[in-house]
Model the fold of this input.
Amino acid sequence: MFISTAYAQTAAPGGGADMFMSMLPLILIFVVFYFLLIRPQQRKMKEHKAMLDAVRRGDRVVTGGGIIGTITKVGPEDELTVEIAENVRVRVLRSTVNLVLSKGEPAKGEEAAAAAPEAPKTEGAAKSLGKMFGRK
Done:
């Protein structure tokens, strides 16, 4: 009885390599999550913030509620005035803009961004799926 207890106590130390090998799968899972989920999400957030900072009067935008309108005024403290119908204007927060459909003409006093107008950044879902699968 005493011999088996002493034998069990001497076999326990020396598990440093075993501990590292048991932690290795957790470390690999974290690395995979970082490269597949965290990093692309951070890049997308950075692009969205840059888009919101570049929004100006005359841009056609889609808000978070799905309302499509044209920006008529960029107000103070992240406030935009969007015209959604003729003589119907709503005030929205800059952060609720999800997408800029097309860039408008620069307002008076603003620098002209480019000589050629930009193409709309969105396409129909069927068109983009067709492009993805090699159809025109």
Summary: The longest strand covers residues 68-75. The radius of gyration is 28 Å. The mean pLDDT is 78.
